[in-house]
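User: Sequence in, structure out. Go.
Assistant: Echoing your sequence, followed by the structure tokens.
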Amino acid sequence: MNVLVTGNLGYVGAVLVPYLRARHPGSRIVCYDTGYFAHCITSRSRAPESYADLQYFGDIRDLPDALIAGTDAIVQLSAISNDPIGNDYEKVTIEINETASLDLARRARDAGVRSFVFASSCSAYGFAEGDARRESDALNPLTAYARSKVGTERGLAGLQNGEMTITALRFATACGMSPRLRLDLVLNDFVACALSSGEITVLSDGSPWRPLIDVSDMARAIDWAIQRDRSAGGPFVAVNAGSNAWNYQVRDLAQAVADAIPGTKVSINRDAPPDKRSYRVNFDLFAELAQGYTPTVTLTESIERLVAGMQELGFADANFRNSQFMRLQTIRKHRSDGLLDADLRWTN
């Protein structure tokens, strides 16, 4: 099997590529990434990209046809990865997350690629009161990031995809330890606060719901999607990727971290205005389709892995929200150093 992974030098790709190498030792894995976060290594072991057969550097908006030829499966991870960056760079977010993804899918179809996997997001549901959201429920994207995911899904659903199987994985909010750790994710942020200052400050009133998934389980979901047969979901499927057991209110996540790290205090801003990004998600379809690949990591295990990994790094930075652990801060640093232009293209 020949696999092309785009955006591998990020939080998810750093876990995915070693996972695919272990699961499919005879496969040829080619990776392509622009390198915004290549230097953000948070592991003392082997560099995750070294598990690939080839690593190319380039903008997803310029991916050459030669890398698509002869490929069996493409995993499209390349993206402006969260709301804060999307808010600052809305036009670029649409260009990279949506326009480039759909262009890649069309070229993949024309080149005879068998499987196309798109990393979508449950943030597409936006503010959703009431029952846990199913794939058939209305979408309500509230940010440029979420809108880009919805736009790509709709474009993929309307693509005349020939023999290519397309899977859009609507991932729950990512969490857990990675060789390129992000701390701009709710659970990871809480663990960082507990380790660095002994106090978790919840900026909202703690009531919003978040579905979560450990990054190692994201890799397992992608592995399933790469191999997915059309009999499991059809030529195109958009499926919530996560577990019903992982729907949590933010205050409960904070308390779980405090329970795991003795001495941690939890401070909740009960006077905060309501956080509109609140949604519970139903993952029954994923459990039905992806048998053997559904999440296995528990919340406790995810917290334990974060604590162990960050302690190994000697993490104690109470000012981490201004560090490279935050993807927006890294982009801003590249911009201030003159390395990226306003379209987030390298200047030299």
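User: And one key feature?
Assistant: The mean pLDDT is 95.
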